[in-house]
Amino acid sequence: MLNTDAGLKLFHFLECNNLAQLVKEPTRITKSVESILDLIISNSPGLFVSTGSLSPPSNCDHNIAFGKLSIFKPKTNCYVRLVRNFNNIDVNQLNYDNIVRDFTSDIDVIYENWFELFSLIVDRYIPRKIVMIRPGDKSWMNGAIRRAIRKCDRLLKAYTKFKSSFKWEKYRINRNLVFKLIRKAKLDYQQKTNEILSNPATSAKKWWNVAKSFYGSKVSSAIPPLYENNNYVFDPKDKADLFNDFFVSQTYLPIENAVLPELSPNLNPTLSNIIVTEVEVANLICQLDTAKACGMDGISNKIKLCNHGIYKPFTKLINISLSLGQFPQSWKLANVLPLFKKDNKQIKSNYRPVALLSCLSKICEKVVYMKVYTFLVSICFFYRFQSGFRSGDSTVMQLVYIVNKIYHCLDRGNEVRAVFLIYQKHLIRFGQLFNSASNSGT
Questions:
Q1: Cys bridge to 225: 232, 262, 360, 390, which one at CB 3.0-4.6 A?
Q2: Per the domain annotation, does 104 fall within a domain?
Q3: DSSP 168-194
Q4: Residue 281: partners with Cβ closer than 8 Å, 6 or more residues away
């Protein structure tokens, strides 16, 4: 390889990038020359046990270059989980209209009493079951196939022990049944995935989740050792404390030199009270996404399946919370997950927090948002060019508007200039920038 200019250039490239060429045997042999044209390049040559070349196929003059890797793939262990069996809900009995008793003005006490009765009734009418989670299973695997495989293994052991034609016939019949079940399960799974991928109503997130399942693209959620103060943090608890301190520090805004703007008296109508109806709460519960994870209270979004039995007391609980102006402390608790953004996974600042809140708190939040948004629209509060977070509009509309303005100016021979601001951190600094621009008449 070093006898030619191209070989020397490749050698220097590999050396500069800390790469190694592992094939040492000629991969193309003719009557006059032997050369290494088929290469195996790696940045981890220690993972290879052996490399070399094999005899070429009949229709090719190049040998087959091969490399044997020594990689241990850890086995994913099965584990059990206790879940609610929503398929066996006693719908007629799950109805409790009068479990909210506001004998006190403390919303935390009211919610604790409500949640205690709610848990007792749910435990009574929504039974629990133990399920086995098998991370290594194929997507089309089901319980019928597992039972047939186990039975087939037992019959094979019986035949091996007794060597009778009767035992062999039973094993053969069950083995053919296993093959039939597997073929049917694969066909059903393929038809289901094809329907999802071809359905225009399928969301982009669900479409990509299904598409990635075909080629087994799974991103590991494990967090590597974090680099902090010239040391590596390996312990999971220390990692959690490190993330917690960092996320909390990001919520601090320097207010020592902050100046509040002067607000003119508001003569517009005000929203002084929020009251939600039972129909509105029932509709919000029906909109819960069952694929979302639950919060710290363990209440799954699958409570939408028993909506008719919980929306009345929950409506009363929300109205009490809004009338008192108090939010239950339990609804403020969340399971916070660090989600990797970009660059180095060992740097804590490259993660952002994702809070898994209680589904009940999110319903209450949607109630307030719905009422406040409707009120602001009624008084024409929003700027007419605002596209984000508005019903019936989106940032796509804003993009189309900007592109149209640019094309219109270019057609008229005018000059186009634009200023783009990226909101990432320290929003107060951008606020000071806007105040300065406003004071200068910009």
A1: 232
A2: yes
A3: HHHHHHHHHHHHHHHHHHHHHHHHHHH
A4: 311, 314, 315, 318, 363, 367
